[in-house]
Amino acid sequence: MLEGGKISGRQAVYLIVVTIFPTTILFLPYLVYAEARQDAWLSILLITVFGVMIGDIIGRLGRRFPEQTIIEFSRTLLGPVTGFLVGLLFAATFIYINSIIVRQFGELLITNFIPETPVAVTLCAIVLTTVYIVRHGLEVLSRVNDMILPLLFIMIFIILGLVVPFIKTENLMPVLENGIVPVIRGAVPAGVFFTETFIMLMLVPYLSKPAEARRIITRSIVTVGFMQLIMVLAAITCFGAQTAYILFPALEMARTIRLEFFLTNVDPVILLVWILGGTMKISIFLYCSTLAIAQLLRLREYGWAAVVTGIITIIIAIVPYEDSFSLADHIRNVGPLLILPIQAGIPLLLLVIAVITGKGTQK
Amino acid sequence: MKKSQALKNSFSLVLNLKENLAMILAITGTPPDLNIRTIKSNLGLKGPEAALLFMTSLVDTEQLGVFVINPLVKAFQERNLSGNNGEELLKNLGHSIITSPTVKEEKSINNIVKMLLQGDSILLLDNCDTALVMELRAVEARNVEEPTLETVIRGPKEGFTERLQTSVALLRRKITHPGLCLEEMSIGRFSQTRVMVVYIKEIADRGLVDEVKKRMSRIDIDGIMDSGYIEQLIEDAPYSIFPTIGNTEKPDVVAARLLEGRVAVLVDGSPVALTMPRTFFEAIQTPEDYYSRSYNYSLVRIIRLIFLISSLALPGLYVAAVNHHPEMIPRTLVITISAAREGVPFPLLLEVLLFGLIFEGLREAGVRLPRPVGQAVTIVGALIIGTAAVDAGLVSSSTVIVTAFIGIAGFITPGLYEIFIITRLLLLFLAGFLGFLGVTLGLLILFTHMCSLRSFGTPYISPVSPLNVKELKDVYIRAPLWMLNTRPQFITTDNRMRMSKDQIPLPPDRDFKDKDNK
């Protein structure tokens, strides 16, 4: 067995939350608000429902194959050759998504935080740290996360608490000004984030109770959806129409607070905690891609696979994009088209095949 | 060759006294402090003959005279001896003549020699293949004093001493229940140090006890000078900078940990007891937290934690903030800091390193030097380094403040002192290169490392990770004593209740006072 560790249901929930939360907290309000305006919170509800639906597919697959990752059960389902190809596709997707996250993360840090440091150095530092984490295995990864996710939540709640005096509920009016269409259009680009529960396709066999997979996914999605809802509501009520121009509302809120008597600028502290969350997210994706590659190549242990995968991720993250603009371009135009069908489509397809052929355990 | 062969074969005593003596002397040689006192009856060759062996350096000769030699000689003279053979005679001597408090019988020569060299007195009898062993050791031991490292304002002040018997006594006085188990081992090829594994049978996890004993029994070393030797030979993570075995000099702490289900190891010759498993958060717990009421010490816990984290990360954060993120610091302070650094020729990273080095040097000098000279070091440190270095433009005053703060913060959790310098350096360099990102990644690496550690099966930073919300009542805060009614789950899983559930004190009934008034 490649991975000897087991994680509890709660730890799995924490892992999924930390996978989705750090990116959505930063990018999602902006993306959604661009289309849905003051009804952005309705879009979030819509996305949450969508996320639960996708999660349901993944959970059902997990229940059918409680002892196998997608790399393994696609072989049982589709035969060795096609199965291998699907596995390869998934491994590639993990690495690809990870490379985008890493680059995004790096760009954000560099523009807001450490402008004089070269991109490559920043990315290497982050990815090598995650390699170090991944090499310790899933158990340690989720234990580190046990410490970091509460920190992230505490930070968010502190920000939200301090923001309360700035809230103007009239900013939410009028509801559904332009009908339902903008709400749906706002939900589309953001929906990708909520399909990231597909990491569970790699983690189900390592749950202490694999049968709980569906409940775990639903619970995580609802948690993230709820947090996101509060965040978007806070952003809209605080900034009103200005929200459209604010790229990172969480940071902007922190800037609004301004603890003049204490620290002039608390956003580095927020970024600091957020880096922890982001690094965890990258670690989880790196873990999934490493495990996928190790299972594809039938390795006996994944210590070195993590190093190699990490290096590949760095290269893919650095080489294709000249600057943050070409990255943003890529994310907006190519990303969702590429990722969404794989994250949501292939699991659905596999589930349909499994149901038709009757493979896997049925209860 | 022949001699060693003979030694190996002669495991037990024979019937001939002379041969027995010769065999023992063949092993021990004839050291100057080995005394052989022969006792004969004045009937000449017919009467029984005995030999008393003891080390003059180790035995309380006064007691030996009163309890052993005196009655023996009297009995031999008065021919007050009965017994058909040597064996019976020896038994009678042990039962009704010798008045020493402990009398044991022993046949194995190796054991006899071992006991002799540990300070026991050996009585050999002619025509008898058994020896009597009397324990009348001379004791030169320090008095029971307050430990210098773990001082408390409220609570027991006694500490273990180098003498194992004293330490065991102190512990037994804390826990008198028969469930307190002490298992003796002797470790060290030459030192033959006596070591006690202590646990409470009803509470401690059987697997944990077996694991401790297993690890102890695989130690093969020439000598044990301190419990630190044992610690380094049985710890879980020999390459880690984090200590995974707890230590304390206080019997009340050991007793409390035993009651939590831990196992302790007492080592003869060392006042420091080892306790295991150890968790990270033991560093911010002190015995006093439990002896005083909980509000104050809950806050103190948080203060300790803050200082612990700043002691690790402050040099890094300082360098990161000043070098990379000056916008974070209040404007007036930035101006003061940069003004102070105006004349300093070194980069900030080097400055912090340099002054950190000076501080650690001063600390080390203060510890090693004799007291009066140590004070001189403090004066030199405080006056010359502190002020003169700033005046001379060697370091800036803000760096001095930061270093001093780190120094004090480090003293708050002395149990972790050994990790501080290394982690500070790591975070400092990362901060110098990558700013806050570096500090964060460094902390993450530390977290990961800590999460991967285990101490005798217990995850090192339990109960924070893996998170166990119920157990947090004794980590960041110290919940009132009547709420701490279960033993920590990460140490023991069975027999978890340490007090009944209704221990919250209730105010007396009104009637109670009324009765008094009547």
TrEMBL record, chain A:
Pfam name, any one: Spore_permease
The keyword Nucleus appears for this protein: no
This protein's GO CC annotations: membrane
Membrane protein topology class: Multi-pass membrane protein
UniProt feature coiled coil, ranges: none
Membrane-spanning parts: 12-34, 40-58, 78-97, 117-135, 147-167, 187-208, 220-248, 268-290, 302-321, 333-356
Source organism, top-level taxon: Bacteria
Keywords: Germination, Membrane, Transmembrane, Transmembrane helix, Transport
Compartments in which it is found: Membrane
A GO biological-process term: spore germination
PANTHER family named among the record's database cross-references: SPORE GERMINATION PROTEIN A2
Family statement: Belongs to the amino acid-polyamine-organocation (APC) superfamily. Spore germination protein (SGP) (TC 2.A.3.9) family.
Protein name per UniProt: Spore germination protein, amino acid permease
Organism listed in the record: Desulfoscipio gibsoniae DSM 7213
Higher taxonomy: Bacteria, Bacillati, Bacillota, Clostridia, Eubacteriales
From TrEMBL, chain B:
Keywords: Membrane, Transmembrane, Transmembrane helix
Family recorded in the similarity comment: Belongs to the GerABKA family.
Protein name: Spore germination protein, GerA family
Pfam families: GerA
Keyword Transmembrane helix set for record: yes
GO terms for biological process, alphabetical: spore germination
Domain of life, source organism: Bacteria
Organism, as annotated: Desulfoscipio gibsoniae DSM 7213
Transmembrane portions of the chain: 302-324, 344-362, 374-394, 400-420, 427-447
GO CC, one annotated term: membrane
